[in-house]
Amino acid sequence: MNDLDTIIAKYLDNSCSEEESAELQKWLQDSSENALHFEKIKAVWQMSVLDAEAFEPNLEKAWNQVNQQTIKEPVHKTKVLSINPRWWRYAAAILVTGLIGWGGFSLFKSSNLSDAKQIVVQTKLEKNTVVDLPDGSQVWLSANSTLRYPEEFSKDARSVELQGVAYFEVLKNSENPFSVKTEETITTVVGTAFNVRALAEDSLVAVTVTSGKVHFGSQQDQPARVSLNPGDQGTYYKENLLVEKSTSQDLNFLAWKTGKLIFKNTPLPEVITAINRHYQSNVVLGNPALNTCQITSTFDNKSLDEILDVLTVIFNGKVTYQQDAISISGSGCL
To answer: Region 176-193: what's the mean pLDDT?
Structure first.
């Protein structure tokens, strides 16, 4: 193992220093090949069921076998390493990925890192769709979102990749966990229903649970993960890499799916934010006096114009359509 391999081992073992962690993160960002190498090692680490206390590996013999199978590219060893038993899973991962690199065999043929046929569903702007996954689970994919999944799930993992917003209803299978990966996060469940919001332009990734139990957090940092129950929201902040658990206060996190906007004593600026997110619009308040107003109302599959008409009646105002915005004016709260 080279110095970087040692850092990876310590990272997987949650024992690396801040300096080593920073060095690893920089290496991962240098190239997609580095990231792929790391993911393969981590996958083998997670899949391994070796008992480190009972099993004593003979790495010298293992490397000799690899050397015999790869005569054209001999392995040059300068020393024999003494490996801590708790690192054996990592040593096995290094050996396996080495064999893959030399064409010995394909461990990932039946795993989620395989060359199995991938299906990509990409929705257009203002167009939602429902996706039936190979295991019978369903995904409601929001507009302008992308979902990637294998044509068939492996026997020990069900993994999909998401960019955008989606609601998942996952069939329960305790022997085959289901995971949703975004660029930075991973959400793992056995069988549950939850919403994932992972837009590239947002500064955070949010997961809100409606049923069952969900584990959510960073792909890279295992300790930075939380367990979520119905009504909980997990938030991952991209800038500082922090994960936060809270009770969901957003009544409209599923508005994109249901078409229903619900407001209960909601400050008008928050109403406007929800409207703009739902309709991909740019509505602004033209009078600062409106900022302190609140409304309680439900808009069930109404058009943007219909909602604006209601707001102008409530606040005795008018709507002005500008070049790049829609302005609502009014005398303030009645």
So the answer is: 92
Can you read off the two tokens belonging to residue 147? 């979902």
Note whether 200 and 188 are within 8 A (CB): no
Work out the pLDDT band at 11, boundaries 50, 70, 90.
Answer: confident
Task: State how far the alpha carbon of 271 is from the alpha carbons of 126, 205, 334, in Å.
Answer: 20, 21, 17
Tens digit of pLDDT for each residue in 126-146?
A: 789 999 999 999 999 999 899
For residue 187, which amino acid is it?
T
- End residue of a domain, out of 59, 75, 110: 110
Using an 8 Å Cβ cutoff, are 130 and 138 in contact?
yes
Lookup: tokens for 218: 């960073």
Q: With contact defined as beta carbons under 8 Å apart, do 140 and 93 qualify?
A: no
126 and 237 co-located in one domain:
yes
Q: What is the pLDDT of residue 32?
A: 61
Number of domains in the chain: 3
| Each residue's pLDDT tens digit, 294-314 | 999 999 999 999 999 999 888
Q: Report yes or no on 139 lying in a domain.
A: yes
Which residue segment(s) compose the domain that 264 sits in? 259-329
Q: Are residues 264 and 162 in the same domain?
A: no
- What's at 68, amino acid-wise? Q
Q: What is the DSSP letter of 107?
A: G
In eight-state DSSP terms, residue 188 is: E
> Where is the domain boundary, 91, 110, 129?
110
At 143, which CATH number? 2.60.120.1440
Q: Phi first, then psi: what are they for 160, rounded to 5°?
A: -130, 160
b/e sequence 7-24, b meaning 16+ C-beta within 10 Å: bbbbbbeeebeeebeebb
Phi and psi of 269, rounded to 5°? -60, -35
